[in-house]
């Protein structure tokens, strides 16, 4: 590993204050309670991204983990997202969308802050935001209006997405010795520190601290304790492509959360059986 990504929750303090929400929602229950207050002001509470270009690692999966669920079964032979925890997570999401607490633009959003409801100050919070986007929000909204909190707390636990970036040597490489020399160079503390300073990413090593010039660095560093890199599987991306449209079907009311997840699971399990 040569760098570490992490996401956490950011809030637009002005939008929350204007709606009379004194304490930024940090749990599912607090989100449910605050949502009507924002809606009464014509603002969505929670931004979300559900386009096919948006990674489920940054939208649905954190909610699934917060509910105590998994994407795949332990043996990887089938999916597990359609269990009770998945239904609970998708029901939470669906209810918010149908109440207007998630903006209609969620259907087309990617995972980028710019151009989305959160970035345009039409939604008050996002829960899978990288440090660079928190800084972008500070430049757009004014730093005094940006609050960075911890990962959302669901019914089971606090969880967010964050993954290490790594270099690897191909087993078929004809230059194993040279490649390993390069890797040895790249994983030295001074290189990890330098890369982190240039990229804004955190360190994947406990003995290397990246000196990031951001007032939000401390909150992002703390969020690492709740970060999950997801569940590695050779069919991960194919499963995402089957699950994403079913999530949209549930959010827009075309299917119940349970029916949508079961349909995605049936298609995904067929893919897994073919591997």
Describe this structure in words.
With 275 residues, this protein is α/β, with parallel strands linked by helices. It has one domain: 3-Layer(aba) Sandwich (D-Maltodextrin-Binding Protein, domain 2), CATH 3.40.190. It has 10 helices and 8 strands. The protein has helices at 13-18, 28-40, 60-66, 84-98, 131-141, 176-186, 189-199, 217-223, 236-251, 257-274, and strands spanning 3-4, 8-12, 44-46, 123-129, 146-149, 160-161, 164-165, 227-228. Strands 3-4-2-5 form a 4-stranded mixed sheet. A two-stranded antiparallel ribbon has the order 1-7. A two-stranded parallel sheet has the order 6-8. Helix 3 crosses helix 4 and helix 9 (236-251) packs antiparallel against helix 10 (257-274). It is globular. The model has no long low-confidence stretch (mean pLDDT 95).
Q: SSE layout and pairings?
A:
Elements (H helix, E strand, L loop, with lengths): L2 E2 L3 E5 H6 L9 H13 L3 E3 L13 H7 L17 H15 L24 E7 L1 H11 L4 E4 L10 E2 L2 E2 L10 H11 L2 H11 L17 H7 L3 E2 L7 H16 L5 H18 L1
Parallel strand pairs: 3-4, 6-8
Antiparallel strand pairs: 1-7, 2-4, 2-5
